[in-house]
Amino acid sequence: MNDLVLHETNGPVAILTLNRAQRHNSLVPIFLEELLDGITAVSTDPTARALILQANGRSFSTGGDALGFVEHEHMAELYANEIVGLLNRVILALLDLPVPVITAVHGTTTGGSIGFVLAADVVLVTPQASFTPYYSVVGASPDGGWTALLPQVIGRQRTAEVLFTNATIDAATAVSWGLANRLVPADQLRETAVAVALDIAAKKQGSVRRSKHLLNLDRADVAHRLEAERQQFVQEVVHGEAMPGFRAFVDELRRKRKV
Asked: Which sequence spans correspond to the domains of the chain?
C-alpha cells in the first residue's frame, strides 16, 4: 500500500480518505486500485454499518490525472481502458456495498471523480464544493457517470447544458438539484458525516440494507451505461481530441509551474 487511500474506523463506521492531496486526488490506476481495495475491505467487514468517503487536501478529487495520460501516450488505448475500467469498478463497488455510503465533499470535483458522489447514498457539501465536467474544454468523452448516472439525479437537460457548456455546479445548486443532501460549514463537515453515519448505524440494519438494495435495482443498466462511457472515452483518447487536449492542459500547467 502507498497510503493513497487511508482506512480507519469510528465504531461501526468505516472511513476512507482520498490522500493523493499533492495531485488534488486526481485519478491514476494505483490510486483507484487502493480505493477499490478499501471498499472491498469494508464490504467484508461484519462490523461496518456505514462508510464515509472523504478527502484530504484542497480539492475533493479532480478526475483523471492529465499528466498520467500524457506520460502514457505511447500506450494510450491500454491506459485509458485501465483507468476508466477501474473507475467504473469503484463506482459499481460503492453501489454494491451493502452498507450506506456518505460522501463528504469539501472542494473541487471535476471529471470522472463525480462518480464518487453519484454512487453515494448521502452527499454532504461545504460552500466551497463544486462540480465541473471539463470534457468539452479538454476534448474528452464523459466518464464517471456524467451520462450514466447524473441525468437520473438532476435531469437530462440540466446535464446536457452542464456538459456542453462546461458549467460549474456550485454547492448551493447541487443541493437544490438533488446532487447533494445538505450544505454543511467547512469546519463541521467531517463531524457531520460521522454523525450521519452513526445515526444510520444505529438503525435496524436489515431495513437499511434492503432499502439500499431496492434503490439500486437498476444496477445492470448503470453498468451498461458506464461501459458505454468507457468505450467512448477510449475512442476519443485514441482517435479524437482528447490526447491533444491533455497535452495542452499539461503544457499550460507547466507554464504556470504547477506540474
From this structure: 5-186+205-255
Note if the pTM is more than 0.90: yes
Who contacts 48 (Cβ-Cβ below 8 Å, separation ≥6)?
9, 12, 13, 14, 42, 99
Interhelix angle for 219-239 vs 242-255, to 10°? Answer: 70
Q: Which fold has domain 5-186+205-255?
A: 2-enoyl-CoA Hydratase; Chain A, domain 1 (3.90.226)
CB distance 243 to 69 below 8 Å: yes
pLDDT-derived band at 258 (thresholds 50, 70, 90) equals low
Do the Cβ atoms of 98 and 63 come closer than 8 Å?
A: no
